[in-house]
Write a structure and sequence with these properties.
This protein is of the alpha+beta class and 250 residues long. The chain contains eight helices and eleven strands. The chain folds into two domains: 6-102, no CATH class; 106-242, Aminopeptidase (3-Layer(aba) Sandwich), CATH 3.40.630.
Length: 250
Amino acid sequence: MTALSDADIEAIERATVEAVAPEAKEEWSGWLLPFDHGTISRAKAAVPLRHAPFDAEGVIDAIETRYRDRGLAPAFRLADVPPFEPIARLLAARGYHGAKASIVQTGSVGHMRNVTSAPPADVDDTPDVGWAAMFLGEGFEPVDGANRVRALTRAPDSRYASLRIDGRTVACGTIAFGHGWASIHGMRTEMAHRGQGHAARVLAGLAGAAQARGVTRVFLQVEADNPAAHALYRRAGFRSAWHYRYWQTN
């Protein structure tokens, strides 16, 4: 695992929430609470800004109240680290279950740029119709796809990569900037075009956008059970920083 400072952990969590642009958010006692009625879990799960012990029962009670006051089901995004074990145990005792095992990975923009020798994908200041269509096509759930398009396009300070073949977008991704980091989101490749190196070209294009901004550090979040993505990100120089799960009751 890559060791990160407390300041870097907080910066990554803040940048993560900003990149999915929740409808509202607030801070409470070292936690960031995003509120959203869409389908993106990161936009509606409370997350601690440091990997340190908390008063488990007091935290859960207060956060549950804040989410229910807004008509939302309480949810928590917790790193699998020892300081959070008491919170996880108490959540489980209250009927929550941990799901969507994922990993935060960090890397260098320079290494990511060199993931392929093929020409990088185009990067635009605003997404076009072809980019948006990538989230609404075969293999993607329509409601979730539409929610992701809305969230990624309303996020502040983002750029949008599109790999086009004969004028048609077949792979895409997004890079967001904030808190001293670049972050990768919304990586998609058409099913018929997978395994051809297109995602690497998207990463290279996004890295070029970060280099143009003078940003050198980058992070992403990937599902634990996604071997193809893990292989790509290893080639791009990413290393795991911490694992996490979403705790919810439904």
